């Protein structure tokens, strides 16, 4: 299924990092803070000409967006204004 965001919105997928304690215990998602780094999966037509594009890694506002589930995977629809930075490797 393909989702094309409308207006100034982006479809992102959270980059999950496995967190271990110093003793080697892997923390479950419920015990961690919500991650704030994601990869852009789809960009609306209204913002295609701006700096941000599909495949970019971004840092977004902590409580931004609407969580959605597509084909068993979790995504977030966020506004362009909720993107705080682009992460470059």
Relevant terms:
0% helix, 38% strand, 89 residues, six-stranded antiparallel β-sheet, mainly beta
Could you characterize the architecture of this molecule?
This protein has 89 residues and is mainly β. Helix content is 0%, strand content 38%. A 6-stranded antiparallel sheet has the order 4-5-1-2-3-6, with no helix packed on it. The protein is globular and about 50 Å long.
Tally of DSSP helical segments: 0
Percentage of residues in DSSP E strands: 35-45%
Helix and strand sequence: EEEEEE
Largest sheet: 6 strands, antiparallel
Using only CA atoms, what is the Rg?
14 Å
Structural class: mainly beta
Instruction: Give, in spatial order, the strands making up the sheet with the most strands.
Output: 4-5-1-2-3-6
Shape: globular
Low-pLDDT segments: none
> Termini separation (Å)?
30 Å
